[in-house]
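I'd like us to work through together how a protein chain folds, taking it slowly. To get us started, please write out a protein record for me. Go ahead whenever you are ready, and we will take it from there:
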Amino acid sequence: MTRLALVAASTAHDGGPVLAGLDMGLDRGWKTYWREPGDSGIAPTFDWSQSENVADIELRWPAPRRFDDPGDITFGYTDELLLPLRVTPADPSLPVTLRLSLFYGICSDTICVPREAELELMLPAGPAEGGIMPTADAARLRAALARVPVAPADPGRLSVGWRPDAAPTLEVRLHRCGTGCVPPALIVDGPANVWFDTPAVTREGETVLYSVPAEVLSTAMLEGEELVFIFSGPDEAMAFRKTLP
């Protein structure tokens, strides 16, 4: 049902941060979840406490899909998932051993199953005979890293406000999406007690308008709150941070 492994982009580490990843393969019809799983998903948890010679592990999340079902919106991944990890050795001269105790969930259309796994990966220190070489997973890890949403070069591409003529509904405008631009999917990441519905998407010339109903009693509940607007398209993944007026 699930394939799991820890992988690395190189055969050893040179004392500095090294690119690794959690590699997950899912059978057709199954999905697993993002760090914010949505209405009914199961958020994964990661315990690295048994790792050796590790100063820091930074997990990076590729942009997820939004699954829209009646009354149930979740965020996650299907088929193949590779979560990049930036691993920093504590002692540059010693091997690094990653040990992960993972709790996660997988769901089909009819059932959700909580799962646990124990995974391990050892990276030698310094160039082995023949030098440090890229692994067969290096290109896949770089591609997964490219799907991690980053702050855009032009933050002015996004404007956000409340619709004055409707129940609490965010108007999110992505500017400069011209000819040939496929409107990217939008996920709004906000406070845990606020629910955002499926956006209605329209175009106004080179601007894509997302109308996002928010389940709040009043827009004042989000006054001064910072929201993250994550866009995932075929060519880019962006994350805009906006504080609501």
Remarks:
- The chain is about 5% helix and 50% strand.
- The first strand starts at residue 2 and ends at 8.
